[in-house]
Amino acid sequence: MKRMFVRCVIKGKRETGLVENGIIYRLEGDMFGEYTRGPALGSVDEAEHFLPPVEPSKVAAVGLNYRDHAIEVGLPIPGEPLLFLKPSTTVIAHGDPVVYPGHMSERVDYEAELAVVIGRKCSSVEPGETKDCILGYTCANDVTARDLQSRDGQWTRSKSFDTFCPLGPWIVAGIDPADLEIGMFLNGKQVQHSRTSNFIFPVDILVSHISKVMTLLPGDVIITGTPSGIGPVKRGDVMQVKIEGIGTLENVVE
Fold first, then answer.
1. Which residue ranges traverse the bilayer (predicted)?
2. For the segment 14-52, what is each residue's pLDDT rounded down to a tens digit?
3. What's residue 199's pLDDT?
4. Closest CA to 149 of 211, 67, 61, 222
5. What is the pLDDT of residue 75?
6. Which among 1, 20, 95, 131 is least surrounded, fewest beta carbons within 10 Å?
7. 9 C-beta neighbours (distance < 10 Å), count
8. DSSP-derived secondary structure for 69-121
9. Regarding the domain delimited by 3-50, which CATH topology (the fold level of the hierarchy) does it fall under?
């Protein structure tokens, strides 16, 4: 059954809710455990501000998970998932600004990605067991200081600036991630387009592989790689990640 979890400020209060037919209902209990649907809080349009849909202890990220993107950046197709981490301090919500780190970088890029939200503690799980580990899915933007990525020879600094991991606007559970349309729109123009069926490593393989490296905790996020079409942004640009069955994540660069 499809379910949508949201965290937002509505009518002046921070709330965790369930979205049904455009209405936000208070979630009573724990989205990672037992919960019930409480009273209606208002429509999605009445939300004054969205919050990050989760507060992860870590964001585990996958590089080069679309063949066309690996070719685009001139790197070999990986034989196993290529992993890196983004700190929890990179996470912001739908509608929050992405801060351009002009004191260090002269080229910042967008990267549209499908995000997997972990629903329970899991370690060393097999691919067939991963479905029970996943709460749901959301949109992500793996913002990257591309010049620093090239300069450093590894990815930590380029991926880790505060605000460099927008997530949202909500988490959708009960959908199949195997073949979702994904795109990035920059100032209204589509600049990335693919389907998750083009992953080199599908979601079940990624969750299993990562869980054999590090224990995944409820609320942790895995971002699954970006398709070809990466490019730079400047201050004032509007980035929109759109994923079929989930929605649109929008952030402005400032």
1. none
2. 999 999 999 999 999 999 999 999 999 999 999 999 999
3. 96
4. 61
5. 84
6. 1
7. 13
8. HHHHTT-PPPSS-EEEEE-GGGEEETTPPBPP-TTT-S-EEE-EEEEEEE-S-
9. SH3 type barrels. (2.30.30)
- CATH homologous superfamily, domain 59-252: Fumarylacetoacetase-like, C-terminal domain (3.90.850.10)
**What is the rounded CA–CA span in Å between residue 241 and residue 142?**
10
Entry pTM? 0.97
> pLDDT confidence of 79, banded at 50, 70, 90?
very high
Domain boundaries, the chain: 3-50, 59-252
Angle CA 154–78–233, to nearest 5: 50
Task: Tell me the residue type at 194.
Answer: S
Specify which residues 35 forms β-bridges with: 29
- Please tell me the distance from the alpha carbon of residue 114 to that of residue 138, in angstroms, as a whole number: 6
Neighbours of 172 (CB within 10 A): 22
Nearest to 207 by CA among 3, 85, 60, 69: 60
